[in-house]
Amino acid sequence: MFKKILIANRGEIACRVIRTAKKMGIATVAVYSDADRDAKHVVEADEAVCVGGAAASESYLLGENIVQACKHTGAEAVHPGYGFLSENTGFAKMLDKAGIVFIGPGHRAIQAMGDKITSKLLADESGVNTVPGHTDVVVSAEEAVQIALGIGYPVMIKASAGGGGKGMRVAFDENECRDGFDRATSEAISSFGDGRIFIEKFIEQPRHIEIQLIADSHGNVVSLNERECSIQRRHQKVIEEAPSPFLDGTTRKAMGDQAIALAKAVDYRSAGTVEFIVDANRNFYFLEMNTRLQVEHPVTEMITGLDLVELMIRVAYGEKLPITQKDVKIKGWSIESRVYAESPFRNFLPSTGRLRHYQAPPSSNNVRVDTGVMEGSEISMFYDPMIAKLVTWAESREAAIEQMVDALDRYHIRGVDSNLPFLSAILNHPRFQAGNLSTSFIADEYPHGFEPQELDKNKRNFLASVLISIHHRITRRAATVSNQVEGYGRKVSNDWVLILGEDHYHAQIEQVDGGGNDNMESWVVGLDGARFTVMDDWTPMHRVYAGKVNGEQAYFQIAKVGYGYDVTCGSFFGKAFVVTPQTAELNRLMPVKQTPDMSRFLLSPMPGLLVSLVVQPGQSVKAGEELAVIEAMKMENSMRAEQDCVVSKVLVSEGSTLEVDQPILEFETDS
Q1: Among 28, 156, 35, 14, which residue's Cα sits nearest to residue 85?
Q2: Domain 457-587 belongs to what architecture?
Q3: How would you write 62-120 as a 3-class SS string?
Q4: For the segment 442-498, what is each residue's pLDDT rounded down to a tens digit?
Q5: Helix, strand or coil, per DSSP, at residue 270
Q6: 634 and 191 Cβ atoms separated by less than 8 Å
Q7: Rounded distance between C-alpha atoms, residue 343 and residue 334, angstroms
């Protein structure tokens, strides 16, 4: 077996590979950019080598620097993870020339399957169902329009070398086709250095279901069943699960057989995934093959009991697969939620900064957290915004969802915004719980964006009871300290008013016997005529509240901020105050602070790079016209005029690095 391997990646996937390598007794080498000098994967590896500047193009995408790091450290093999150089034929050849083993497929498979045009032609030849489309390279926006007219709208405009939602646009008319071609080409060049584009029919209301394969160099290929990846936003997967709630045994076998046939056609080895789109009648069509480990591979591991990274390493070393197709079973159900640094309440704009507080839910046989960050880590504008992959397992889909909902409530992230409330909303959505999924789920259910959602009455009462009990204890402890100083003694009332949004809750609280458990405190809160028993071991040091209300388990994130509390529970976020009845009456008389008018400015909605500025001072623009393009976390974002206006001033120049809410343009006003 290899004595030392290098991981040519960063973040959670680098940590994931390191974990398995250590289990196998293999020494590990991490590589890092200037921005990742103190990153978690650097800390966890046995050795680490800097390979360049902060931008991926100056570090993680420089194959020659990776090869040099291997030579410097004596690494015998390279695991590429996903993204970066994982599907780069030139890099694999570079390693081969240097006598270093690539823990992945051979050159032919990478080249054939990494190119969407070639892979589609090969799929046709191998008897794999394919989507109707134009597989030749499209060279201009006008040609794209003509091809789309021939295929029939809607169409999918795709980068041939693309992946992860980069370089993909759906067009429903000629204007969207032209704009989509330009955007897809630009993103493809930026992300992959390859701007080739092709077009195919966009199948409406499809499911995205993929087959995980593992193959060795002895001709053995095994299907590890499917993953449902239909919950997507902007072609980026958000929640995945295994198995699919939609497939039956016949369709599962047919999809597995076709995936295996395609893998054998290119002498595939290592882990790989064949992605399909599936319509409402379970007709399935080849989408692409990813010749690498997928982000969502943990759900397959959870239902099969296999370690895909270990199998990849063993196959790369030349070993035969230790399993055959008849050994592969489906045990239980697994769900993965991708935790991103983004603001779901601001149209999912990226959020950068330092993780001031970071506490993942406790890991167990049922809960797994794959992450590349730790408290104090920097979420940089240079890389993908993923913080972690949260994975749950249970005997049934319903139980796996319940596990995930609880785990999301226990995930504590401060310093950057995260999509935790959005993930919780999806998991609790009746349509998701019914398994009625499609790739348009998010667009269908949240057409106007995502807003904080209200708690049901029972959950709101639970939260109110917990907040009052916590505030009472904080106040009582402060009074205890005051009473130790002569002349400062004070009593703490048992009467409180909770102000939560527009609601006022009048409450009385008393401490009761904890039932013989010395570590637990028990309180009874009388809340507008109802009684709630709160039992917990809470202290001010706890970042996540975990206790029981009327005997039911409850998780809340409650942070003391100034005179109030920031409260998070599921998809609810709010500000709360617990005050005396007298203060509550005075609060009703307080004036409301007016928000400053910034309507005459175009503000940057995210931190990022100003790629282009397409207007000048004095220029008149119409509503919907493009004003600027901002690139953040490898995605281009077009900023458009909300109404007819005239540009008064340009406040920044192209190439500038922007902060969130930084003014870019100023418009003329009527006054």
Answers
A1: 14
A2: 2-Layer Sandwich (3.30)
A3: CHHHHHHHHHHHCCCEEECCCCCCCCCHHHHHHHHHCCCEECCCCHHHHHHHHCHHHHH
A4: 999 999 899 888 899 999 999 999 999 999 999 998 888 776 666 666 788 899 999
A5: strand
A6: yes
A7: 26
Could you give the 3-state DSSP secondary structure of residue 379? strand
- Asked if pLDDT for residue 194 goes beyond 90, the answer is no
The 10s digit of each residue's pLDDT in 501-535 is 888 899 999 999 876 677 899 999 999 889 999 99
- Omega within 30 of 0 (cis) for the link into 154: yes
CA torsion through residues 456, 458, 459, 461, sign: positive
What gap in Å lies between CA 479 and CA 582, rounded to an integer? 19
Read off the pLDDT of residues 546-583 as tens digits, 9 standing for 90 and up: 999 999 999 999 999 888 999 999 999 989 999 999 99
Q: Say if CB 228 and CB 209 are below 8 A apart.
A: yes
27's CB contacts (< 8 A; 6+ apart) are 3, 4, 5, 21, 46, 47
The residue-averaged pLDDT of 642-661 equals 91
Beta bridge partners of 649: 666
pLDDT score for 605: 86
Highest-confidence segment of 106-120, 392-406, 524-538, 572-586: 392-406
Q: Residue 466 corresponds to which amino acid? A: V
Active site residue 585: no
| Domain 332-446 homologous superfamily, CATH | ATP-grasp fold, B domain (3.30.470.20)
Which residue in 562, 549, 561 sits closest to 466, CA to CA? 549
- Distance, in Å, from the CA atom of 224 to the CA atom of 336, rounded to the nearest integer, reads 17
> 425-445 pLDDT, tens per residue?
999 999 999 999 999 999 999
Mapped to the 3 state alphabet, what secondary structure does 187-229 carry?
HHHHHHCCCCEEEEECCCCCEEEEEEEEECCCCCEEEEEEEEE
Query: Are 291 and 213 a contacting pair, CB within 8 Å?
Result: no
Among 200, 241, 288, 342, the one annotated catalytic: 288
- For residue range 133-163, what is the model confidence (pLDDT) as tens digits? 887 899 999 999 999 999 889 999 999 887 6
CATH class of the domain at 133-201: alpha beta
Cα torsion 45, 50, 55, 61 to 10°: value is -80
Q: Does the pLDDT value for residue 72 go beyond 60?
A: yes
Helix axes of 249-265 and 116-125: crossing angle, nearest 10 degrees: 110
Of residues 427, 439, 260, 222, the one with CA closest to residue 339: 427
Across the range 374-399, mean pLDDT stands at: 95
Within this chain, domains 105-131+207-330 and 332-446 share the same CATH topology: yes
Query: Which CATH topology does 601-667 take?
Result: OB fold (Dihydrolipoamide Acetyltransferase, E2P) (2.40.50)
DSSP-derived letter for residue 376 is: T
- Report whether CATH 3.30.470.20 matches the domain 105-131+207-330: yes
Q: How far apart are CA 527 and CA 500, in angstroms?
A: 13
Q: What is the CA radius of gyration of the chain?
A: 27
Report the topology of domain 4-103: Rossmann fold (3.40.50)
Q: Omega of the bond prior to 243 within 30 degrees of 0, cis?
A: yes
pLDDT at 226 over 80: yes
Cα–chain center distance at 601: 31
CB 131 within 8 A of CB 286: yes
Number of neighbours of residue 204 by Cβ within 10 angstroms = 12
Which H, E and C letters describe 542-580, residue by residue? CCCEEEEECCEEEEEEEEEECCEEEEEECCEEEEEEEEC
* Domain extents in the chain: 4-103, 105-131+207-330, 133-201, 332-446, 457-587, 601-667
Q: What are 279's two structure tokens?
A: 């319509």
